[in-house]
Amino acid sequence: SMLQVEGEYTGADYTANVKAINASPVDGTGIYLASYLQSLTSKLSVGAELLYQSPMAEIQETSLSLAMRYQPSEDRVWAAQTQGSNMLTTSYWRKVSDKCEAGAELVMLNVPTQDRREASCSAGMKYEFAASTFRAMADNFGKVSVLLEERLAPGFSFIVSGEMDHFKGENKFGLGFNLES
């Protein structure tokens, strides 16, 4: 069973949120979150989230995450986020035209205690045709994926997808139907 209690307050240019998941005040176990998001200007927002979790009374973990979002215009967004002190994610999205969008993401992981340093980079795009949507993505691990969704009727579409992993020499292909009500 699970219990989640949440409270949020939204001001003119900020939002504050507190959350408790499976919280037990008796022994202090559970997951507790507090977050705050502040718009500094109409184009720049920053935020922070504090996480405290205790699966058992003798085990406690805390983590602080920070985020930043910069939107210089309606057609582009820059974002950065830390997850604890070990992970940094940065991303960029741009609306190239009314029919085309593109984006890129860089994820860096640094865990000195495990002698682990990794990074991944991916770039993707989406193009809207009159009755279909084409999506493509590639990453630095040699993986290329594409998806074509053809809208056959309102609420009904046919999907073709494929993925090539050049480093592993694996390929995947899929067909599907999507029915919306």
Account of the protein in words:
The model has no long low-confidence stretch (mean pLDDT 94). This protein is mostly beta strands and 181 residues long. The chain has strands spanning 4-10, 14-24, 29-39, 44-56, 59-73, 76-83, 87-95, 100-111, 116-128, 132-139, 143-153, 156-165, 170-179. Strands 1-2-3-4-5-6-7-8-9-10-11-12-13 form a 13-stranded antiparallel β-sheet, with no helix packed on it. β2 and β3 (29-39) form a beta hairpin.
Write out key terms for the chains shown.
181 residues, 13-stranded antiparallel sheet
Topology at a glance:
Layout: E1 4-10, E2 14-24, E3 29-39, E4 44-56, E5 59-73, E6 76-83, E7 87-95, E8 100-111, E9 116-128, E10 132-139, E11 143-153, E12 156-165, E13 170-179
Antiparallel strand pairs: 1-2, 2-3, 3-4, 4-5, 5-6, 6-7, 7-8, 8-9, 9-10, 10-11, 11-12, 12-13
Main sheet: strands, sense, barrel: 13 strands, antiparallel
Global Rg:
21 Å
Order of helices and strands: EEEEEEEEEEEEE
Lateral strand order in the biggest sheet: 1-2-3-4-5-6-7-8-9-10-11-12-13
* Tally of DSSP β-strands: 13
Q: Outline, from the CA principal axes?
A: globular
Share of helical residues:
under 10%
- What class do helices, strands and sheet pairing give? mainly beta
Strand content: over 45%
> Which blocks of ≥5 consecutive residues have pLDDT under 50?
none
Query: Termini distance?
Result: 31 Å
Average predicted confidence as pLDDT:
94
- What is the oligomeric state here? single chain
Number of helices: 0
Provide a concise account of the structure shown.
The protein is built from no helices and 13 strands.
